[in-house]
Amino acid sequence: MITLGLTALALIVSLVFLVKELYRPANYPPEMRARKDEPDTTFTDVQLTMIILDIFIAGGHTTSTTLDLAFMMMIMRPDVQKKVHDEIDSQLAPDALPHYDDRLNLPYIEAFLLEVHRFFSIVPVNGPRRAIVDSTLGGFRIPKNTTVFMVQRNVHMDPEHWGDPEVFRPERFLNEAREIVNSERTMPFGQGKRRCLGETLARSCLFTFFVGVMKNFCLQKPEDNGTDMEPSLTLNPGITLSPKPYNVVFQPRKGTRENEHHE
Ligand code: HEM
Question: pLDDT tens digits, residue range 76-107?
Fold first, then answer.
C-alpha cells in the first residue's frame, strides 16, 4: 500500500513538473509552437498532458503487474524456474546484459511470458467497440451501433482450443523444434485498430527485465511465510487485475557478479 502511495505521489509530482516546464511557450515542442494560433488545433497543453497521462496509466501498471505475476510463478513453480535458469545459463554469456534480440535463443522464456499473459489475462475485457454495420457473429445478430466488448479471458481459457487452459504450461507455445507457436488466440494486447500501442515496448521491457533478474537471482518463498501464496488476483479500481501482495526472497545465484558482492 505504501509503495503504491509513493509511486502515485512520484507520478503526480513528476507530471506536475513536466507540465510546468512544457507550459513555458519557449519550451513548446515545434509542432505546438507552429500551430498555437489555429483555433481547432489538437496540439494543446491539455491534449499533451492527457496523452502523457494515458501512457503512464496504460503502460505502467500493466507492465509491472505482468512482472509481478511472472515472479510469483517463479516461486509457485520451481520446475519452471529451473528451466528458465537452465536456458539462460546455456545461452547467455556470464557477463552479458540481456538484449531483446536474445529472445530468439531463449524460446522457453518467451513461451513462459506468453503463458503468463494467457493464464492471467490481466486486462480480461477489451473494448468498447461500436458495430459500424449490421452483422452476425457465431450465430448472434449484432445490429449496427451496438457496443461490443471482447472478453479476452474467455478466449485465453477456451478448453476447445487450449485443451487444459487451467494448467500453467509454457510448453504449449513451443513445437517439437522448440520454436514459438502462437496465434491470434493469445491476445493480451487486444485486437484490431485500437489494440495496445505500447505492445512492442511492453514486450521488450518484460523480456529484458525478467531475464536480467533471473540471470542473477533465484526466487524463493520466505521460510516463515504466512502469506497466502496461491496465485490469486484482485480487481483494481479500473480494468486490470493484479496479484495479492506476496513475499519473495531474491537469492543471488552462484557465480554472478551480484553474488560476489554479497560474499
Ligand atoms: C504488459 C503490458 C501491457 C498490456 C497487457 C497492455 C494491454 C492493453 C490492452 C488489452 C489494451 C486495449 C486494446 C483493445 O481494446 O483492443 C491496451 C490499450 C492501450 N495501451 Fe496497453 N498494455 C500494456 C502496456 C502498455 C504500454 C507500455 C503502453 C505505453 C507506453 C500502453 C499504452 C496503451 C494505450 C495508449 C492504449 C489505448 C490504445 C487505443 O485506444 O487506441 N500499453 N493495452
Answer: 999 999 999 999 999 999 888 999 999 999 99
**What is the spatial distance between Cα 219 and Cα 76, in angstroms, rounded to a whole number?**
10
Q: Is the ipTM of this complex over 0.90?
A: yes
Quick check: 106 and 88 in contact, CB under 8 A?
Answer: yes
The rounded distance, in Å, linking the Cα atoms of 27 and 148 is 42
CATH architecture of the domain with residue range 11-25+45-123+153-252: Orthogonal Bundle (1.10)
| 196 labeled part of a ligand binding site | yes
Q: Which atom of ligand 1 is nearest to the CA of 194?
A: 41
| Closest to 150 in 3D by CA, of 122, 129, 121 | 129
Contact yes or no for 256/215 (Cβ under 8 A): yes
Atom of ligand 1 nearest to the CA of 66: 1
Q: What is the CA angle 250-251-256, rounded to 5?
A: 115
Question: In angstroms, rounded to a whole number, what is the distance separating the alpha carbons of residues 34 and 189?
Answer: 35
Q: Which pairs count as long-range contacts for 167-170, CB under 8 Å and 24+ apart, including other chains?
A: 168/73, 168/76, 168/77, 168/80, 168/115, 168/119, 169/115, 170/80, 170/83, 170/108, 170/111, 170/112, 170/114, 170/115
Grid cell 494515458 is found at: 54
